[in-house]
Design a protein that fits this description.
Helix content is 63%, strand content 13%. It is an alpha+beta fold. A 4-stranded antiparallel β-sheet has the order 3-2-5-6, with no helix packed on it. It has a 3-stranded mixed β-sheet with strand order 4-1-7, with no helix packed on it. The chain is rod-shaped and about 165 Å long.
Length: 365
């Protein structure tokens, strides 16, 4: 570096001048020892000049050590570059890429950048290769490496045509959604524009408040352009299901009513039987009083006739009531028993879980 070398040369010149002045001062001091004050001043001046001389000579030693370390690093980088070329020849592009990156950290020449891009291209990292080819072209133009520039131009044009692209668009419900491609957030400036990607699988994800998350995985091949439209569905509002209608208690009540009505019917039939029994006894008493033809009935038989009519009316009414009560009670008992043997079903609209057409079916056996 010209600036650094000039500064070191100036310091070297000052150091030589300081040493010469120090020798002269010391010689004068020894000659005029009888002047004490002059001697002290000269001794102090000689010490200062000697110190300056030592400081100026120190950078020369450091400067001599630096080129040796730099030369070792460059030599090692050259050896690694040769090994990387051997790995490329053997088809080990991943190993060659790792070694070339170490070389680029020491001395990123256009040739090194070109071979890095070549390894990335062979590994399918076409987007990274495209960037490194462009860097190699820029460095080759700056250093007037025409051969490297020609090689880069020939590969760059063919690679640009091979790079696949993805177009991500906002669809319904995604106006304010956060969209990411392979985990990298996409701003509005790159949406609806072709984005270069590597061949293979990719994932587009999106999310927004109040909407269900969106995720779509797809594959693209070389020279292919995939268009992904992000559509978000609103989060459904959960409506608590209606509890199933409990029919067990009602079934027991129906059966209980059936037993009661049936019991009343049986009691009515028993009463009717008793009334017909008493009616028959009354008829027998009336036959004894009036004879078989009942032509000559005494006045006292009127009470017996009235009593027989009452028994007949009550017997007929209780017979009908008993028959109806017994039949109705039996029907209620049968209906109540039939309801408890079947599942109770309730239909709740908008319930979460298994549903058909927005309705859920709940059953209990």
């Amino acid at each position: 570096m010209p600036g650094v070398d000039g500064a070191h040369d100036g310091l070297t010149y000052i150091g030589s001048l300081s040493r010469n002045l120090g020798f002269i001062v010391c010689h004068v001091a020894r000659r005029y020892t009888h002047r004490v004050s002059l001697k002290r001043w000269l001794v102090r001046s000689s010490l200062v000049l000697c110190a300056v001389s030592a400081l100026c000579s120190a950078p020369q030693a450091a400067r001599a050590q630096r080129p040796a370390a730099d030369n070792d690093a460059i030599k090692r980088a050259r050896d690694q570059f040769s090994q990387a070329l051997s790995l490329q020849t053997a088809g080990d592009w991943a190993g060659a890429l790792a070694m070339l990156k170490e070389v680029a950290a020491v001395k990123p020449t256009p040739q090194v950048r070109f071979n890095i891009a070549l390894c990335e291209e062979r590994l399918g990292l076409v987007v990274a290769a495209l960037g490194d080819y462009e860097l190699a072209a820029s460095d080759a133009q700056a250093e007037k490496a025409d051969q490297v520039r020609q090689e880069v131009d020939s590969r760059l044009e063919s690679l640009k045509a091979r790079v696949p692209r993805v177009v991500v668009q906002r669809g319904q419900g995604a106006d304010s959604a956060t969209i990411a491609l392979d985990g990298v957030s996409l701003g509005d400036s790159v949406l609806n524009h072709p984005l270069p990607v590597d061949p293979g699988p990719h994932t587009v994800e999106a999310k927004a408040l109040g909407f269900q998350p969106f995720k779509q995985t797809f594959r693209v091949a070389e020279q292919q352009t995939a268009t992904i439209q992000v559509k978000l569905e609103p989060v459904p509002t959960a409506i608590p299901p209606r509890p199933p209608v409990e029919t067990a208690h009602a079934s027991h009540s129906v059966r209980r009513a059936g037993f009661i009505v049936g019991g009343v019917g049986i009691a009515s039939l028993i009463t009717s039987g008793a009334m017909f029994y008493l009616r028959q006894n009354t008829i027998s008493d009336l036959d004894k009083q009036c004879g078989a033809t009942r032509d000559a009935c005494p006045p006292s038989s009127k009470d017996t006739v009235d009593r027989g009519k009452l028994y007949t009316i009550v017997g007929d009414v209780t017979l009908v009531a008993g028959a109806v009560g017994l039949g109705l009670g039996a029907a209620l008992v049968i209906v109540g028993s039939h309801s408890t043997e079947h599942e109770s079903v309730a239909l709740a609209l908008g319930a979460a879980g298994a549903n058909i057409g927005g309705a859920s079916l709940f059953g209990r056996f």
